[in-house]
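Researcher: I'd like a candidate sequence for this fold, 92 residues long. If you have to choose between options at a position, lean toward the conservative one.
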């Protein structure tokens, strides 16, 4: 019976890996969409009229350049760790 127990374990592992991979790929796709939205926001920021308040411009630039960039970096970092964990489980 050890073979059936091993087969059950492998089946559960395969299901778990599949269940983790799908959301990871979806998150990567959303991250790409966020990068595109960030680029569009930067272009809109550059197109604001000259009379736009410098404080408003600086605040928007800070949010787009610094905060959004940091969030995207952390998402990428987390997804890379998840990807490495999935690969490790596949190769176990």
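Model: Candidate sequence:
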């Amino acid at each position: 019976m050890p073979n059936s127990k091993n087969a059950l374990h492998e089946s559960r592992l395969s299901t778990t890996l599949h269940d983790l991979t799908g959301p990871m790929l979806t998150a990567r796709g959303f991250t790409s969409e966020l990068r595109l939205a960030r680029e569009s926001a930067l272009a809109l920021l550059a197109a604001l009229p000259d009379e736009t308040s410098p404080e408003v411009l600086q605040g928007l630039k800070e949010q787009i350049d610094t905060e959004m960039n940091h969030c995207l970096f952390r998402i990428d970092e987390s997804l890379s760790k998840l990807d490495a964990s999935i690969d490790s489980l596949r190769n176990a």
